[in-house]
Amino acid sequence: MSNVTVCARFRPLSSKEKRDHGENICIRSLDSETFVLKDEKEEEFTFSFDRVFYEGSEQADVYKFLAFPIVQDACNAINGTIITYGQTGAGKTYSMEGTSILDCHEQNKGLLPRVVDGLFHCLESADNTTKYTVNLSMVEIYMEKIRDLLDLSKDNLQIKEGKVKGIFLSGATEVSISDRTEALRHLSSGIANRAVGETQMNMASSRSHCAYIFTVQQEEKNERRVKMGKLILVDLAGSEKAERSGAEGRVLEEAKTINKSLSALGNVINALTNGSPGKTNHIPYRDSKLTRILQDALGGNSRTALLCCCSPSTSNASESLSSLRFGARAKHIKTSPRVNFSETKIDKKNLVPSPTKNESYERILNKLQQNLDEEQGKLSPIKDESCERILEKLRQTMDEKQVKRLEELFVREGLYCYPNTGNGLESTHNDAISQTIVSLQKTVEELECTVTKVKNS
Ligand SMILES: Nc1ncnc2c1ncn2[C@@H]1O[C@H](COP(=O)(O)OP(=O)(O)O)[C@@H](O)[C@H]1O
Ligand SMILES: [Mg+2]
């Protein structure tokens, strides 16, 4: 079991805060872990965190303390999550991205580009018996819908849970990244797709939660099993109360939805930390998309760090107090990170159902779809003989033309090669199961189409 690492970060006063409220700040530092916050009624609250980053803190220090150990773990197949929390304008995105992903002074680089550097540094220093593959997905949760930031046509992704893979987003675009430049390019174009709105708090504030998901897969030369670490960075939308942001209409609705999912996050944290010892109480992960995505990060299989971003201005003391209280509660969460292995082979005997004499095509397809959904939760490269087996089983119930079409589809998707051509097997072996599943799903869709046509003819 490990505790969630919680840090607080205070940004410098903004020029607006200085202009409207002067240089007064609401915090007094005691040391690098403890400080006192004075609220509007002059009441004092002492907070202690794993580390406090004050106004002059360096981006590099935040990375080193908060993210570096998690990045190293991800390279060793241990899941990690890094979350930035706080009111709009408090420095979440600055901490996460820096001033710009692509074009940024070294000093201003945020966690994301540093994580990319860290990942590739780990990978490059690995011995040559290990083959690493890094994939990236980016999504935003906007008004309780999950949008794929790498493919905006996918605007309502569903969350699923698999035995090995844990919580995952079904059908989310996963791009393979082979170097830093490619990673930053994808991150930058994904970020450009984020929904932004304007409130009084911040002229270009993000009104959505954004999750950056890196999957690091490693294959040892003489190992049958594949190891996989998932590293999720989450830049949350502003935690301020809806009425305070001066929002109206659609923007107010957004703010309410944001507050609802952040309340759900608070409720999950309460349930996790208030339970009686030895008793398993209900944790309401399913109350929002955000908490469901963060299920592993909160009390599950992940090493987790939370950065509570705050304004130091006396004018924002009550919002800062509420962010810090949130962090103090989260500190009590315990998680159980572990190394993630997956089986190298799909359980082929269960993948393709055995058809009985009178079984309809639909039933076979339903079973196949059901099995594929289960397989989605696993990470295991499918082998050519699996495809062969699928084709063989289908030949028993479908006509040769349809099976031929299916075989072509397998070949087109790089899952299978015609005997003796020797092409594609290597890369097939190295493909992640998610790609395999997407291809197989397409096949199922095509088959369903064929079945409908056959029925109607
Ligand atoms: N630690 C910091 N040092 C310097 N500027 C900062 C810092 N944190 C935030 N800022 C600046 O404050 C403004 C608001 O920060 P931002 O990260 O966009 O807030 P949020 O994402 O929490 O809404 C931005 O202009 C950002 O550059
Ligand atoms: Mg932001």
Automatic annotation (TrEMBL):
Keywords, alphabetical: ATP-binding, Coiled coil, Microtubule, Motor protein, Nucleotide-binding
Binding residue positions for ATP: 86-93
Any GO MF annotation of the entry: ATP binding
Pfam families, per the entry: Kinesin
Name of this protein: Kinesin-like protein
UniProt record similarity statement: Belongs to the TRAFAC class myosin-kinesin ATPase superfamily. Kinesin family. KIN-1 subfamily.
Protein species of origin: Aquilegia coerulea
Keyword Membrane among record annotations: no
Domain of life assignment: Eukaryota
Cellular component, GO, one term: microtubule
GTP-binding is among the record's keywords: no
GO biological processes: microtubule-based movement
Residue runs in coiled coils: 358-385, 430-457
Limits of the Kinesin motor domain: 3-333
